[in-house]
Amino acid sequence: MAYNNYGPPPGAPPQGYGAPPYPPQGQGGYGAPPGAPPPHGGYGGGGGGYGPPSGPPPPGQGYGGGYGGGYAPPPGPPHGAGGYGPPGGAPGYGAPPGVPPPMHQGGAPGAGALTYLYTQVPPPPPNPPAAPPAGYDPYRDVERLRKAMKGFGTDEKAIIETLAPLDAFQIDSLGHAFKATVGKSLLASIEGETSGWFEGALRAKVLGPVGYDVWLVHRACNGAGTNEDILNEVLIGRSNSEMWALKQAFRATYHKDMEKVVEEDLSMKTRRMFVMVMQAARQEEWAPVDPGLVQQDVKDLKNAARGAGTDEIKICGILLSRSNNHLRAVAHAYSSKPDGLSSMVKSEFSGHMEGALLHAVRAVEGNAPYGVSQTAALLEASMKGLGTQDEKLVYRTLRAHWDRRRFEDIKAEYARTQHKKGLRNRVEGETSGDYKRFLAAVIGH
């Protein structure tokens, strides 16, 4: 994989607040945005907090519920602004990812590491590779994999046991060590020795959180037709730092501008909607929720959906640019029904726009932390009915597993709301062979 440094892609937005600047050549990370939102009150803990506009959130879930990546947030909100912590009783997962401080260079998780899919990840291309994390010897696993793929036949059991437990830093370190030792990428070796959905699941693991999302976006836009579900699930809901990392890694991998690739595969208002998504100009999660803006957004959403014509761009602008914490507050204020926003989207939109906006709002509806109920439902949808939708099962399972704590919540929610025997039991009943064994190892007990 190339590690050349690239500047901002053509047409990139100005590097102001909400768009982390590209790192200087030779550095691995993003600086914090130069500005910060003006002081205002918020729902979060701290002296300046307000109660939500239409009653508290559901039991056990606050507006700040999310999963932290372990780094400290950027320098706190301006003096006088409320904090972003959840109200009393909310699960203590920390703040969802915002713009991190300069990216960690030492190879092990630590303060300043990029957070992607709720977990800390090594700097993706075009940044230089990170050093192996402390306590992990990638060359030992290189030898295990070489033996497993040497000569006639493949030791699939050894491949599964070696790869399934690795975290994002370990799999990245293993990939670099393998190529340095063997002279061939680990992915190419895996693809040469395996096939079918076992190969597909291993690819998702070997590429890591960012690399696999890059591969998925390319896959969604490659060939005839567009895989709308992949674009929705990979691009909708990304933080600003995640989106910039994804765009940079896409360019480093395919030598193309991701925005242009996606735009050329879409048309009309759907194209405009995804252009908005890819600008990396969302409200940051560390910013306190403004009750006045919540009420204004609720009013604007209802006005935009009222009457003969729907103001689609107004609705998209609110649902796709606000922070997850803000959208959860909007969802509770919009309707006393838990799916009030979803019902509005279904009544006013159709086709790909409906699917994309539903993905945005369903992540903030319900009692569970951000996206947990939605992911559990999507996993079940991959297996429900006649025939398993293996591609969806693979990318939904592998994308969800990187943050183990959040994945445990997803599995608990799945057992509670989708299938009482649990995710692993359900997956084992829908798959077979090494494909089944690998997914079971990834899911765990």
Query: What is the CATH class designation of the domain at 115-207?
Result: Mainly Alpha
Under CATH, the topology of the domain at 115-207 is which? Annexin V, domain 1
Please name the fourth-level CATH homologous superfamily of the domain at 115-207: Annexin
User: Could you give the order of strands across the largest sheet?
Assistant: 1-2
Shape summary = globular
Average pLDDT works out at 81
Number of helices: 19
Strand-and-helix sequence, N→C? Answer: EEHHHHHHHHHHHHHHHHHHH
Structural class: mainly alpha
Low-confidence runs: 1-111
What gyration radius follows from the Cα positions, in whole Å? Answer: 22 Å
* Beta strand %: under 5%
State the share of residues found in helices, binned by percent. 40-55%
| Number of E strands | 2
Assign the CATH architecture of the domain at 115-207.
Orthogonal Bundle
- Biggest pleated-sheet summary: 2 strands, antiparallel
**How far is the N terminus from the C terminus?**
34 Å
Protein name: Annexin
Keywords: Annexin, Calcium, Calcium/phospholipid-binding, Repeat
Family: Belongs to the annexin family.
Biased composition (Pro residues): 121-132
